[in-house]
UniProtKB/TrEMBL annotation:
Residues 1-79 form the GST N-terminal domain. InterPro entries: Glutathione-S-Trfase_C-like, Glutathione-S-Trfase_C_sf, Glutathione_S-Trfase, Glutathione_S-Trfase_N, GST_C, Thioredoxin-like_sf. Homodimer. GO terms for biological process: glutathione metabolic process. This is Glutathione S-transferase family protein. One of its GO terms (molecular function) is glutathione transferase activity. The lineage of its organism: Bacteria, Pseudomonadati, Pseudomonadota, Alphaproteobacteria, Hyphomicrobiales. Pfam families: GST_C_3 (PF14497), GST_N_3 (PF13417). Residues 88-222 form the GST C-terminal domain. It comes from the Bacteria. Transmembrane segments: none annotated.
């Protein structure tokens, strides 16, 4: 049994869901509202962030990067030439660099602002920091996403996938963060057609289907979110 503590629109949770999908692992999803600061959850991950992976008779594995490394070490060889973290050390560096770019830089500049302001704060109490979104933060994130799209386009114009010739953690991390932003309708897809075409390839993979079915109470996803031919 594999449990994943997650939030449907948390981009780091989405990254690990995509990874698990590529491994053919269907987890038991347990939604966690991190702003509630549940004691039981904090005992699993004192940082209080999603995702957290829990397998039978094993300690909790917290954090997207740690989970990705753990899954590669325990299951990666089973994928053969479809391994999401390549065998060669130099290739692994590039995958890790780009995985970090999206899980840290893109998150800090784009997806964290948009998901927190437009989703989490809707459900938080005033004491938890809930209320109307900070539109200055939203505007900054909407501006920042443009150069990230251009960077994706730059990479794909010389590579088949973001980090090289094969799909990797880099692609899944980037697509996970973009999917959270796309749910909200805040990705300017016309900014870079190459980036858009790459995202469409990732979005059409079977591992992506569960994400496209995600919904948030009281919110309707953008028209491009579920459209594979957007």
């Amino acid at each position: 049994m594999t449990d994943l503590y997650y939030h449907p629109l948390c981009p780091h949770s989405r990254f690990i869901r995509l990874v698990l999908g590529e491994f053919g692992i269907e987890p038991n999803l347990i939604e966690e509202r991190t702003y509630e600061r549940r004691r039981e959850f904090l005992l699993m991950n004192p940082a209080g962030t999603t995702p957290v992976l829990v397998e039978d008779h094993a300690p909790p594995v917290p954090g997207a990067g740690t989970i990705a490394e753990y899954l590669d070490e325990t299951c990666g060889l089973g994928l053969g030439d479809r391994r999401l973290l390549p065998d060669h050390p130099v290739a692994r560096v590039e995958v890790r660099r780009l995985m970090g770019w999206f899980n840290h830089k893109f998150f800090a500049e784009v997806s964290d602002h948009l998901v927190r302001e437009k989703i989490y704060r809707r459900f938080m109490t005033a004491d938890q920091g809930g209320g109307a979104p900070d539109m200055d933060a939203v505007r900054v994130a909407r501006s920042n996403v443009r150069y990230h799209l251009r960077y994706i386009g730059y990479l794909i114009r010389s590579r088949r996938w973001l980090a090289g010739d094969t799909l990797s953690y880099a692609d899944l991390a980037a697509a996970a963060h973009l999917s959270s932003v796309d749910f909200l309708g805040d990705v300017p897809w016309a900014e870079d057609e190459t980036a858009k075409s790459w995202y469409a390839r990732v979005k059409s993979r079977p591992s992506f289907r569960p994400l496209l079915a995600d919904r948030v109470m009281g919110m309707t996803p953008s028209p491009t979110y579920v459209d594979l031919d957007f």
